[in-house]
Specification:
- The chain is of the alpha/beta class.
- The protein has a single domain, classed as TIM Barrel (Alpha-Beta Barrel), CATH 3.20.20.140.
- The protein has 11 helices and 15 strands.
- The chain has an 8-stranded parallel sheet. It has a 3-stranded antiparallel sheet with strand order 1-10-15, with helices on one face. A two-stranded antiparallel sheet has the order 11-14.
- The longest helix has 16 residues.
- It is globular.
- The two termini are about 20 Å apart.
- About 45% of the residues are buried.
- It binds (4S)-2,6-dioxohexahydropyrimidine-4-carboxylic acid and zinc ion (ZN).
Amino acid sequence: MTQTLTIRRPDDWHIHLRDGHMLKDVVNYTARQFARAIVMPNLTPPVTTVAAGRAYRDRILAALDPTLDFTPLMTCYLTDTIDPSEVIAGHSEGVFTACKLYPANATTNSSHGVTGIKNISSVLDAMQKSGMPLLVHGEVTHKDVDIFDREAVFIDEVMTGIIADYPELKVVFEHITTQEAAEFVAEAGPNVAATITPHHLAFNRNAIFQGGIRPHYYCLPIAKREKHRLALRKAAISGSSKFFLGTDTAPHAIGAKESACGCAGIFNAPYAMESYVKTFDEENALDKLEGFASEHGPQFYGLPLNEGTMTLERRETLVPEKLTVMETNIIPFHAGEALEWSVV
Ligand code: DOR
Ligand code: ZN
């Protein structure tokens, strides 16, 4: 039985760091585990200009523990009216690594999102030309589509069209949750990839309703049936360079989760690698973790691989019941559980 595993330092290709006090309290959880991370722009107001992206990056760096070596990679939030020249200037100036497409009202702070792909056609054209990746929250938002079907319907109604109309555009289907999405990405061209979260690999939708309503398992896209979780696990351990690590860590204060209308999001940054290694170990695929966590992402983004290493060992990690953030509590993913692996 493998007792220790040393891999190239991993990166996280999808995170929410928030802002203000929350940012100060959460950024180092990610920076302790990952060398780089793609930072989502869904602040209030959203990050839609080069100046806002640069200022946000400065706030992240100011909040960072100076002993940690971590690079935030910034994203631009697409709106119906965003100016393509702003997006491309941000990319060429090294501020924006990618753009994020939130369908309007799909999730937290997405009310300024895109209401129709035709509204951003000139931006997508410019991104395709410049090789700037498009990161997609892939869910339709019409109220008449069942919440568990929103990702699969998005593939048919939106994603297929984007891929057809912009065949050279680099597209990341973010935090996929369905067999349909895993198959769609596997069958698409090499410029289409996907991130997979630790939580969608670990539980199915039953966890949200286990003996009562469990808000700390609620995120968007919502967890689906078991067959979908199994399809995601298969994709993650496949060795295909189209699938890579993106935690979608999304902290919310406990009161915002345990509420009559609780927020979507799971704070998995503190034990993210312990969670992924558990999945890969259960699948007898520890040899596939390095590709997924440390190689496929930078290869897709056209960035260098990290130089350092991370060692994981088979030694129990006890995840606390809660963590203190902003003088309140936040419940981490795997709260109260004993995980079999530790980051050394
Ligand atoms: O669960 C989620 N939380 N999904 C998202 O798409 C957004 C995120 C957040 O910002 O809280
Ligand atoms: Zn997200």
